[in-house]
Amino acid sequence: MTPIHPLGEFLQARRARLQPGDVGLPAGTGLRRTQGLRREELAALAGLSIQYYTRLEQGRENNPGGTVLDGLAAALRLNEEEHAHLYALANHAAERMSAGGSPADREVRPGILALLERVRPWPAYLLTRTSDILAANPEAFVLFPGLAEWAPERRNTVRYLFLHPAARVLFSDWERVAAGTTAQLRSLLAADPTDRELAALVDELGSTSPEFASRWERYDVRRRRSDRQTFRHPRLGEITLAFEVLRMEGGRRVTMYQPAEPDEAGRRTLCALSRLAATNDPPGSPG
Q: What is the CA radius of gyration of the chain?
């Protein structure tokens, strides 16, 4: 599923999502054979020739300037994050950014392990840029049923979301989480289209999860942000936790969960997580 021409694929996908009425154009009469805007309509809105815009979509033009990109962003009605995504794709197409793609360093510093232990009973884990779990405290494994049963090299939060049967029940708003997670992967791929590990994850999910494949084709983009999440836990019932994302070097990040409200119910939730962790200490956890 890794795109051959990421910039052209993005333009085509976003063009298909706009209707003439969205941009002040008449719908015309008869059946439109093109999904969304036609190339010539978008080119005119962006102030480009149809020949130039066609070359962009087909990957035959790889060096659009800022004026061209800003015009396209306005014509496509991109938000700020999508606008930045467009620039990232163009920079890579023009080779204005160095390619990465080296395997992620999987060594975990003792200080990070100590941090995961110190924040207990808050569930917390350390992720690579592709969401592989490098380390987690026991409460994190309890929070995500079945995750600890996977081999360490398979433990990945995105893979868990789309491929583990427990995830469909666990996340009360699975559709929203799935859409946001897929959009985050799109943003990561724009930051480094040559990332072999990320490309392998996308290919795996695209071939094994129809739900992922359909969302991937929408071409939404979004970075991971702090938020709150409601879980339907098989042993704890319905619980709502807020999570914070702490970004580190090399695309790593630490995610920590805490009660959405600092009240007695939140304290009881953490105590219940801690008790379960004490009786079910999963492999690979610190401490």
A: 22
Q: In what order do the strands lie in the sheet with 253-259?
A: 133-136, 124-127, 253-259, 237-247, 227-233
Are residues 148 and 181 in contact, defined by beta-carbon separation less than 8 angstroms?
no
Sequence-distant (6+) residues with CB within 8 A of 265 are 259
Q: Is the pLDDT of residue 283 over 90?
A: no
| Contact in structure between 125 and 116 (CB atoms under 8 Å) | yes
CA distance 185 to 129: 10
Beta strands in the chain (DSSP E): 124-127, 133-136, 227-233, 237-247, 253-259
pLDDT at 31: 61
> pLDDT of 179-208, one tens digit each?
999 999 988 887 777 788 888 999 999 999
Separation of alpha carbons 8 and 11, rounded Å: 5
Instruction: Give the contacts of 103 (CB within 8 A, at least 6 positions apart).
Output: 196, 197
Beta strands in 49-161 (DSSP E): 124-127, 133-136
Other CB atoms within a 10 A radius of the CB of residue 106 amount to 11
* Tokens at 167, concatenated: 């995830």
If 0-12 CB within 10 Å is exposed, 13-18 middle and 19+ buried, where does residue 22 land? exposed
pTM > 0.70: yes
Residues 5-36 have pLDDT tens digits of 788 889 998 999 898 888 888 776 556 677 78
Q: Residue type for 25, please?
A: L
Tens of pLDDT along 70-103?
A: 999 999 999 888 888 888 888 877 776 554 545 5
